[in-house]
Amino acid sequence: MAERVYLHIGLPKTATTYLQRILWEHQDQMRGEGLLLPGAARREHLWASRIVRNEAFDASVTEAQSTAWDRMLLEMADWPGRALVSHEFFAAASAEQAQRVVEQLAPAEVHVVVTAREPLGLFAASWQEALKNRETTPMADYGRDESDDERPLNHRSGISASSRCPHDRARTGPCPRTAARRGAPR
C-alpha cells in the first residue's frame, strides 16, 4: 500500500475542479516524482466517491464506473510512495463511511485535505451552480429558507454540521512544515 495517502475532500465550490484539472494535466510528472494519482481519468475519483458514500446506481452505470474505487485501491496497494485521491463529494461521507475508507487504505498514513473559501464567495458560487442546474431562484431569495435539520450545511453536498473524523490518527491544523515556518507549535 502507498505509505501515505492524501484524500482531498473539497469542500464543494472551493476551486476543486480547477485543482483537479491541474493535477490530471501533470499526472505523469507527479508519478515521476513519487506521487500517484490513481485511475485513468479524473471522473474515476467522482465514481469512487459515489461508491464510498453508497450512492445508489441506476442501470446505466457501467462496470468500470461501479468498480472505480476497488481499482484505485488495487493501484494504491501496488504503489510504494505517496498517493492522492481528490473529489469534493468525499466530503459528504458519513463518519462510518470515512472510517471504512481509512481502514481500506491501511496501513497507509491518511491525510485529509480540505479546501475552503470565504462565506460570501461560497454563497455566490453555490447560487451560480444552482442556476447552471436550472434553478431560477433570484440571488436575493437564495438560501433564505430555514431548516430544522441540523445535518446538511449544503443540501447539494450533504455535508454535515456534526461530521467528525472517526480516526484516532487524524489531526487538524497546519501541516508541520508550515507551522515550523511560522513558528507555531506543531
N-end to C-end Cα span: 27 Å
Number of domains: 2
Radius of gyration: 18 Å
Biggest sheet layout: 4 strands, parallel
According to CATH, the fold-level topology of the largest domain is Rossmann fold
Summarize the model shown.
With 186 residues, this protein is α/β, with parallel strands linked by helices. It has helices spanning 16-25, 27-32, 43-52, 63-66, 68-77, 95-105, 119-132, 176-182, and strands at residues 4-8, 35-36, 82-86, 109-113, 152-154, 159-160.
Describe this structure in words.
By secondary structure, the chain is α/β, with parallel strands linked by helices. It has two domains: 4-117 and 154-182, Rossmann fold, CATH 3.40.50; 118-147, no CATH class. The chain contains eight helices and six strands. The protein has helices at 16-25, 27-32, 43-52, 63-66, 68-77, 95-105, 119-132, 176-182, and strands at 4-8, 35-36, 82-86, 109-113, 152-154, 159-160. The strands form two sheets. A four-stranded parallel sheet has the order 2-3-1-4. The chain has a two-stranded antiparallel ribbon with strand order 5-6. Helix 3 packs across helix 5. It is globular, with a radius of gyration of 18 Å.
List its salient traits:
single chain, Rossmann fold, 186 residues, alpha/beta, 8 helices, 39% helix, 6 strands, 2 domains, two-stranded antiparallel ribbon, 4-stranded parallel sheet
